[in-house]
Amino acid sequence: TATKVAGLLPYSAFRNTTWRMLRTSLDSFDAFVACSGFLRRRFELLHPSAGEVYAIHNPVIVGDETSVPENRILYVGRLSIEKGTMVLLKAFSSLLEVRPESRLTIVGTGPLEGRLRRGVSDSAQLKNSVTIAGYVPPPEVSRFFERSSIVVVPSVWPEPFGRTPAEAMAAARPVIASSSGGIPEVVEHGKTGLLVSPGKPEALSVALGELLPDRRKIVKMGHRGHERAARTFSRRVIASKFAGLYEKIT
User: Fold this and answer.
1) Separation CA 13–CA 100 (nearest Å)
2) Is pTM beyond 0.85 here?
C-alpha cells in the first residue's frame, strides 16, 4: 500500500527521485491511500489506471476540552506564500480597526519569517498585537491551542488534508479556514468553524470579526469540533480503517 504520493499538488516536488520511481511501478501496489477525498480524486484523475484508491484521513491526538480565553487568534504552520500568512496579516490589520483588543500568535518558521517580523515591528498597529513564536517543537504546540480562542488556516493553495484544523478541533477550538483542497472535509462550515474564500483578506477579516466576540458560539463550535475529531480523526478510528483495508487486500 502506498500511503504518500507526491506530485499531485502545485507545490509538490515532481522531480523527487522517490516519486519518479513510484510512477514506474504503479502496477505493483495493491492499493493506494490518500489522506483525503480531495487527494484521492486528484490521484485518480492523473493516474486512472493505477488501481483502487482509498481515502483515509491522517490521525490526530484528541485531548481534553479546556477553558477558552478571549480574543486570542492562533496560526500554526509554515510561514510561506502558499500558506497564506501574508493574507492573514492583512486580515488581522483590518480586524484591529474594529476590534483593537484582538491578539494574534503565529507559530512556525519558513521563508517569510523575516518579512513577517519586519512587517510587525515596523507597524505601530501590529507590534503590540502580534506575537511571532517561531519554531515550536511539536509536543509543545498543544499549549498554544489551549491558549487560543480561534485557530485560523488561511492557505491559498489546496491543502491535501488540513492537519492544523483537525488538531485545532481535537483541542476543542473552532477553525476559520480556506474553503479549498481537503479542508472542507475537516471543517464543517457553521458547525465546527467557518470557511472562507482563499486569498481574500477581507473575507477572512469579516469571519474573524463575526466569530471572535461571540464567546458562546466559540465554545459551542469548539465542542462540536472536539466531538467530530474524536469520532473521525482519532488514532483509534484511523488505525481501525487501516486495519480494515489491510484485511480487505490480503
Assistant:
1) 41
2) yes
